[in-house]
């Protein structure tokens, strides 16, 4: 699993949800192609399988939400399934990496998820990154017939099965109620060792253990996302305590667009935080950047952002 960390990368979110019917999703593909042309390193999409009506739970950190957090839609918002979206997006792009931020992997049966992700990786030429987490919403687990309280254990088992099926020609598994022998699942992912897994979570022993065992990247959550310097230092210690002493794990840091006096996004002001993030240990800077409706203006804006980022991080 050991690997040299890449130069700092720039990622952008692709909006795959809407509060009401957007009248079509072609804009999603326009933005994906734009990111590909402009040189964005990675686009990421989010995940919700279903909603209950207790959406204020997202603001509860003790169950996996974030303090003060608010869901961007109500329970009847339209949320596209992320792996389906990335398969479609992979077909209209050629170089940008395709990531989930985050996939609630435990809601999917492990062998089926392994097959889906492997297929996507093969069809995209090895461009998939699988960001995973446990989620915050009890109702999604109930709808899938799964235990919300046991979601961490379910995620660990899912990741074990994924890497087993991706790496072994003749795979067997026996653990926690799931057993199979001499299973062949082809094709394997293009990427050596399987699709990279990015683990989301706060600094705690369960997340550190998950990172130590499975992680190519970490998506900080809660206080660690708000203070990346302290969060990364604490997670490095926690991962080392789990036996993974070489820090070869990529780390996400978030960057919000700054605006000028006219309310327009300001590339230079936005990028001022990048050197501090990189110095803190962030390797994947995820930017929330407004995309104008005019695709030519949008491409000029995103290209300027990418070029400014490259100038700071080369």
Structure, described:
This protein has 314 residues and is α/β, with parallel strands linked by helices. 38% of the residues lie in helices and 17% in strands. The protein has an 8-stranded parallel β-barrel with strand order 1-3-5-6-9-10-11-12, surrounded by 5 helices. It has a two-stranded antiparallel ribbon with strand order 2-4. Helix 6 links the parallel strand 9 and strand 10. Helix 1 packs parallel to helix 11. It is globular. The mean pLDDT is 95.
Q: What's the Cα radius of gyration?
A: 19 Å
**Helix and strand string, N-terminal first?**
EEHEEHEHEHHEEEHEHHEHHEH
Main sheet makeup: 8 strands, parallel, barrel
- Order of strands in the sheet with most strands: 1-3-5-6-9-10-11-12
Please give the alpha-carbon distance between the first and last residues.
25 Å
Tell me the number of helical segments per DSSP (H or I, 4 or more residues long): 11
Report the sheet-strand fraction.
15-25%
User: For the residues shown, what is the average pLDDT?
Assistant: 95
Number of strands: 12
Low-confidence region ranges: none
- Give the proportion of residues in helices: 25-40%
| Helix/strand class | alpha/beta
- Morphology call: globular
Task: Summarize, please.
By secondary structure, the chain is of the alpha/beta class.
């Amino acid at each position: 699993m050991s690997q040299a960390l890449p130069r700092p990368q720039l990622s952008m979110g692709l909006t795959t949800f809407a509060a009401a019917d957007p009248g079509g999703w072609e804009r999603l593909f326009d933005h994906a192609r734009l990111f590909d042309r402009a040189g964005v390193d990675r686009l990421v999409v989010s995940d919700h399988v279903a909603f209950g009506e207790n959406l204020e739970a997202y603001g509860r950190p003790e169950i996996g939400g974030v303090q003060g957090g608010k869901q961007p839609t109500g329970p009847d918002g339209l949320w596209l399934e992320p792996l389906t979206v990335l398969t479609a997006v992979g077909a209209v792009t050629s170089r940008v990496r395709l990531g989930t931020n985050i996939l609630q992997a435990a809601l999917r049966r492990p062998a089926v998820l392994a097959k889906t992700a492997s297929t996507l990786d093969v069809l995209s030429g090895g461009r998939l990154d699988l960001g995973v987490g446990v989620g915050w919403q009890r109702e999604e687990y109930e709808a899938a017939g799964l235990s919300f309280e046991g979601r961490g254990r379910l995620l660990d088992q899912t990741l074990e099965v994924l890497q087993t099926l991706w790496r072994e020609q003749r795979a067997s598994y026996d653990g926690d109620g799931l057993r199979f022998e001499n299973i062949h699942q082809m094709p394997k992912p293009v990427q050596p060792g399987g699709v990279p897994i990015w683990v989301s979570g706060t600094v705690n022993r369960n997340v550190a253990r998950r990172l130590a065992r499975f992680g190519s990247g970490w998506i900080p959550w809660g206080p660690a996302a708000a203070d990346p310097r302290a969060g990364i230092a604490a997670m490095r210690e926690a991962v080392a305590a789990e036996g993974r002493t070489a820090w070869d794990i990529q780390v996400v840091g978030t960057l919000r667009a700054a605006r000028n006096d006219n309310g327009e996004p300001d590339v230079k002001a936005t990028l001022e935080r990048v050197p501090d993030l990189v110095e803190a240990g962030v390797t994947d800077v995820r930017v929330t950047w407004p995309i104008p409706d005019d695709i030519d203006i949008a491409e000029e804006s995103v290209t300027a952002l990418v070029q400014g980022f490259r100038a700071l991080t080369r």
